[in-house]
């Protein structure tokens, strides 16, 4: 693209400052994004894009263009947006918030939430006055981000406009917008779905109640469903039911294992299975080529583990 010399001159006069700005602001936005398990990206407007923006005549001064530097935070659902906004207020002055643009109910257009903001450092550093430059921050959900990336070339590139490509792109946008809304209010929308007595979930919920009754939150992993799945799988491996495990736990015979502070909940359940039916555990693990990890701490509690179990133990 041909860029007028005056626009090129202005661009090169501000690009170094923009690069310094990006180097200083990126870490601040990245930390904000990480608080919500978000993805972070930023960019400086290219010279070509800058020239096209100037040619629109929307600004009195080219240096006033807010999105010369723009950052994006991508989070799982809309529910994180209000939380992010409250964090933005702690470090930035919000100049303008752009959301819910007026549109017909039949329109499914680009409609991400934008903020025009200005950094408010706790201590102003001489020589870094450029940090007070307003800039643009976009918030997207993962579905919005995926759609934007997948349809970018349709919208901004290509040798001709394709009605069919645009039609499909916006049909997908409509479906994703609906999916975003459902995910953001999944607890409410789940009530609209008929329930099902799925046996595996019923049994895993019994395990969930057992482990949360026996162990404190601080003794359980954050991924408690992962623990439940592990316990369910090892029960399946040795052909033992959840009822069987519940009876053994309630019998009181294995209190020394269940109350031990030196082993994990999974190791405790494994210890009970070793104590009650090591033969089935061994045979079925051998049949599916499964290995077991028995910690030294569990071995100390059990006193001695059967030789066959030793044969299928991971040696670390």
Specify the overall morphology: elongated
Into which percent range does the helicity of residues fall? 40-55%
Q: Encode the helix/strand succession as letters.
A: HEHEHEEEHHHHHHHHHH
What CATH first level of the largest domain would be assigned? Alpha Beta
What is the mean predicted local confidence, pLDDT?
A: 90
**What structural class do you assign from the helix and strand content?**
alpha+beta
The CATH superfamily name of the largest domain is Beta Polymerase, domain 2
**What spatial order of strands do you see in the largest sheet?**
1-2-5-4-3
Number of helices: 13
Q: What features would you highlight for this structure?
A:
316 residues, alpha+beta, Beta Polymerase, domain 2, 2 domains, five-stranded mixed beta sheet, 5 strands, 11% strand, elongated
Helices and strands, with pairings:
Elements lengths: L4 H30 L4 E6 L2 H9 L13 E7 L3 H13 E7 L14 E7 L15 E7 H15 L6 H22 L1 H5 L8 H16 L9 H14 L4 H9 L4 H4 L6 H23 L8 H7 L4 H5 L5
Parallel strand pairs: 2-5
Antiparallel strand pairs: 1-2, 3-4, 4-5
Helix pairs in contact: 4-5, 7-8, 8-11
Description of the structure:
The protein has helices spanning 5-34, 47-55, 79-91, 142-156, 163-184, 186-190, 199-214, 224-237, 242-250, 255-258, 265-287, 296-302, 307-311, and strands at residues 39-44, 69-75, 92-98, 113-119, 135-141. It has 316 residues and is α+β, with helices and mostly antiparallel strands. Strands 1-2-5-4-3 form a five-stranded mixed β-sheet.
What is the structure about, briefly put?
The protein is α+β, with helices and mostly antiparallel strands.
């Amino acid at each position: 693209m041909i860029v007028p010399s005056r626009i090129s001159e202005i661009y090169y006069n501000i690009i170094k400052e923009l690069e310094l700005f990006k180097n200083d602001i990126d870490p601040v936005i990245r930390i904000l994004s990480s608080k919500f398990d978000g993805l972070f990206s930023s960019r400086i407007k290219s010279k070509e894009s800058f020239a096209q923006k100037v040619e629109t005549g929307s600004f009195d001064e080219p240096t006033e263009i807010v999105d010369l530097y723009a950052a994006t935070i991508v989070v799982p659902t809309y529910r994180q947006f209000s939380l992010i906004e409250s964090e933005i207020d702690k470090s930035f002055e919000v100049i303008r918030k752009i959301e819910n643009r007026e549109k017909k109910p039949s329109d499914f257009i680009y409609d991400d939430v934008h903020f025009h903001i200005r950094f408010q450092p706790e201590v102003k550093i001489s020589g870094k006055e450029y940090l007070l430059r307003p800039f643009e921050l976009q918030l997207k959900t993962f579905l919005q981000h995926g759609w934007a990336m997948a349809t970018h070339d349709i919208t901004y590139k290509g040798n001709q406009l394709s009605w069919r490509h645009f039609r499909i792109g916006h049909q997908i946008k409509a479906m994703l917008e609906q999916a975003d809304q459902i995910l953001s209010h999944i607890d409410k929308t789940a009530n609209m779905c008929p329930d099902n007595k799925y046996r595996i979930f019923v049994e895993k919920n019994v395990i969930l109640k057992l482990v949360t009754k026996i162990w404190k939150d601080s003794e359980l992993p954050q991924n408690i469903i992962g623990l439940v799945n592990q316990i369910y799988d090892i029960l399946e491996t040795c052909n033992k039911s959840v009822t069987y495990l519940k009876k053994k736990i309630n019998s009181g015979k294995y209190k020394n294992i269940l109350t031990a502070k030196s082993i994990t909940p999974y190791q405790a359940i494994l210890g009970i299975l070793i104590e009650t039916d090591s033969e089935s555990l061994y045979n079925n693990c051998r049949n599916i080529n499964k290995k077991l990890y028995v910690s030294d701490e569990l071995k100390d509690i059990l006193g001695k583990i059967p030789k066959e179990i030793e044969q299928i133990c991971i040696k670390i």
